[in-house]
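G., the chain you wanted modeled:
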Amino acid sequence: MSVHKIVKGAKYQKRPSASYFYKKLKVPVGYIVEYRPRKGGKMIKHSLQLRKNGSPYWKAEEKLSKKRTNKSRTKYKGKKRSISKRNKKRTKRRSSNRTKRLRGGA
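Predicted structure as tokens:
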């Protein structure tokens, strides 16, 4: 039975083990601990609770804030960059001159 568990999404970040607190340290149900459940997130209060089968777990007393996505990134994610009007004209002229030379024109 270990003292700490590793938090999801964070390699080195740990949270206290509920089973260790309940079984070894004999901490009562309702004991409050504060830990950061998500890397870069805020500290959240958790209370020690028991499941129906008797296994201890940490129940969140505060709501975990949702991850925010950057709107500017998601807005342009699927769109292809379009060539500006000036560049379109330039490429058309260039390609038509090339084809004339290859065909033996001007």
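The helical segments are 18-24, 71-75, 85-103.

Shout if anything looks off.
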